[in-house]
Design a protein that fits this description.
The protein is an alpha/beta fold and 359 residues long. The chain folds into 2 domains: 1-102 and 270-359, Isopropylmalate Dehydrogenase; 103-264, 3-Layer(aba) Sandwich (Isopropylmalate Dehydrogenase). The chain contains 12 helices and 14 strands. β1, α1 (14-32) and β2 form a beta-alpha-beta unit. α1 (14-32) runs parallel beside α12 and α8 runs parallel beside α9. Its cofactor is Mg(2+); Mn(2+).
Amino acid sequence: MTKKILVLPGDGIGPEIVAEASKLLNALRQDHGLNVELEEAPVGGAGYDAAGKPLPDETLHLAKEADAILLGAVGGPRYDTLDWELRPERGLLGLRSELALFANLRPAILYPQLASASALKPEIVGGLDIMILRELTGGAYFGKPRGIHTRDDGTREGFNTIRYDEYEIERIARSGFEIAMKRGKRLCSVDKANVLEVSQLWREVVEQVARDFPRVELSHMYVDNAAMQLVRAPKQFDVIVTENMFGDILSDAAAMLTGSIGMLPSASLDAAGKGMYEPIHGSAPDIAGQGVANPLATILSVSMMLRYTLNEPTLADLVDAAVSKVLDQGLRTPDIWTEGCQKVGTAQMGDAVVKALKA
């Protein structure tokens, strides 16, 4: 049965990096029998330009019909003056909400070829392999009430609400335990239970779910300590599960342990395994159109798509091996380049991965 993949290039470097991932998908289709069809649509700033809003109705319809979604990036400075509801990021948040993509998987893996690019010593990060599981549809980013209020005396206050229902905590915790069972059977739940009532509920529910997974070692850590531990001794972690805002911050911190945020993919899944796959690095408008963006995070997002939604783990392994082979060959985009390596552009890197895949 043919699977439908909706391709959303988005803004900034999005079209450039997605073009390389699409090139890879076409190679998998032609040479390895991957039965997929690709369709493209605008989102983010591109959605606003095309239809006057960041998540056009047709794009949302196609997203609901698709089996998986490949997203580039959204956002850019020329949209910063738009009203909040019209900004590109609202398209991304709208997709997550409308498709109930509650579980965000962000691996932080250090390729041995890039150990020198990490800001930390090789003995600290060598062999790093962490999975950060971030709850994606709750917390301060979605909680209400929210807004900016002008008081009677003319001064203003801004407010957001961190809110979690018990079932939202239960489903992300269960996902965390299930992932831990497939890895090192260690799960660290990150919260701020010493200050926040919502975190106290979070911890209570996580401990309840833990009873169903007696083989998984559960630990708890406050988010400030977790941030410190990520840069002190990151290899102590296997799977981290946490709420939306904490996960947003910690996963970006973990990204730099690997040498470049341009290397890291992500998956956002619903309860049935349908997913939206995207690099975590953003639209990088400062380098858009220059042909120097690193497409490897987007290509590795395709690998995650093959693994988690399309049920093609063998093809996912082939993609991972192709990326590793290209790094072995010394090819580097500017963000991961070091002395003695060959500096290449976006399209050259994509071509090299496809060539390695064919080989």
